[in-house]
Amino acid sequence: MSEVLSQNAVAQEVKKPKVLPKPNSDFYQVFQLLSEAEQQKVLKVRQFMESSVAPVINDYWAKDEFPYELIPGIRDLQIAGLGYEGYECAGGSNLLACYVAMEIARIDCSVATFFGVHSGLAMGSIFLCGSEEQKKKWLPPMARLEKIGSFGLTEPLVGSGASGGLGTTARREGDTWILNGQKKWIGNSTWGHLTIIWARDVADNQVKGFIVENNTPGFKVEKIQHKMALRVVQNGLITMQDCRVPEENRLQNDTSFRDTARVLRMTRGFVAWEAVGCQMGAYENALAYAQTREQFGKPIASFQLIQDLLVKMIGNITACQCMVVRLSQLQDQGKLADEHASLAKAFCTVKMRETVGYARELLGANGILLDYNVGRFVADCEAIYSYEGTREMNTLIVGRAISGFSAFV
To answer: Please, are residues 173 and 210 in contact by the beta-carbon 8 Å criterion?
Structure first.
């Protein structure tokens, strides 16, 4: 009798459903490098992204629209201005600021780009290049997301050559600057409140920055249509015709493109983190799919070829995470150089393309459907791969640093 009971117990044990590990892209436990307070901040962001953004983002992506109703929730997270001290900014370490960016991108790269443009590029330009008066005036309402910022550097005919070839001009007349020219691909500009415009001073041929309110006469924004990536981000083509900006709105601590580069150095690292988040999102969705999708009578995650794809993905992610963590540590220590940020941006975006491609491969035909999320990461990664410096340009920055020779022409 006891032997029969024992056999029944074994049979019941066998019938129990297998408990599978939850998809987790933090294989080397990078999260543990954050302090307890920082971890709580990240978990708050994670909960918001998973509960408020994830359920609606595919519909907005398909409609090419931004979910403005999410702004109050993002405001309540108190993450605008992470890494900047004072002026009602969120403060904290660069490691925390970038980890938050990665966490946002893990759910959606468009929302991460919106956040990066506003908090990183626009607020960062004022924080790094603005006077004390300008910081006090503009940063608090931007930290509260009462004023949304954009960053106007790229032009229709000038991308990688911005350091010496800007076509937008600035001419001073007394206490007023007159701006003329165009800017393209400017995120948030169709609905935001202010744009940091970089223009070439016709008097000394140096690049200078200006805080331009978007309702200024002579400042016109047209929405860029028919994008295949980051469709939730509202990119604009800005045209300035005799746009008059007061001298008090010129970034007072910016005198040349070297100052612009300080902002780009900081945010280029941010984009590397965003590229890691993009990989994480694609991987976690692909793994969840593989654990439940069945072929030949069992989940495809049990197949050798599928596990090979999953391991390639987690390997790429883990390598990139370790790189960007060290990058942020260097920035927090005041040791960040252009070549450090450039290597991370180039390497992580290349690996991002590879990782999302593996995820798309794993899902087969379902990989191109928004319903399974992976297709959105595949499309959005193409924009991340290009903006904040192409792979080629960042490679030349690193090449110059390690060889001692400049290959720029």
So the answer is: no
Q: Which residue has the tokens 């910016």?
A: 254
Cα separation, 245 vs 145, whole angstroms: 23
Across the range 351-361, mean pLDDT stands at 98
Average pLDDT, the chain: 94
Burial zone of 121 (CB within 10 Å; 0-12 exposed, 13-18 middle, 19+ buried):
buried
As a whole number of angstroms, the distance between CA 182 and CA 237 comes to 7
Tell me the residue ranges of DSSP E strands in 224-287: 235-246
Mean pLDDT of 122-141: 97
Closest CA to 127 of 145, 139, 113, 137: 139
Which range, of 154-158, 376-380, 393-397, averages the lowest pLDDT?
Answer: 154-158
Distance of CA 350 to the CA centre of its chain: 15
**Three-state SS across 260-277?**
HHHHHHHHHHHHHHHHHH
Sorted by where each starts, the structural domains of the chain and their CATH numbers stand as: 30-143 (1.10.540.10), 149-249 (2.40.110.10), 257-402 (1.20.140.10)
For CA atoms 333, 337, 339, 341, the dihedral sign is positive
- How confident is the model over 220-239, as pLDDT tens digits? 999 999 999 999 999 999 99
196 DSSP β-pair partners:
151, 211
The amino acid at 266 = M
Distance CA 330, CA 29 (A): 20
Nearest 10 degrees: Cα torsion 138, 140, 142, 143: 150
Pairing of strands 194-201, 149-152: parallel
> What gap in Å lies between CA 332 and CA 45, rounded to an integer?
22
Task: Name, in order, each residue with C-beta under 8 angstroms of 228's C-beta and a sequence gap of 6 or more.
Answer: 379, 382
The Cα–Cα gap between 289 and 307 comes to 12
What whole-number distance in Å separates Cα of residue 41 and Cα of residue 96? Answer: 9
Lowest mean pLDDT segment, chosen from 124-128, 154-158, 343-347 = 154-158
Task: Count Cβ neighbours within 10 Å for each residue of 4-19 and write b for 16 or more, e otherwise.
Answer: eeeeeeeeeeeeeeee
Closest listed residue to residue 197, CA positions, set 218, 224, 175: 218
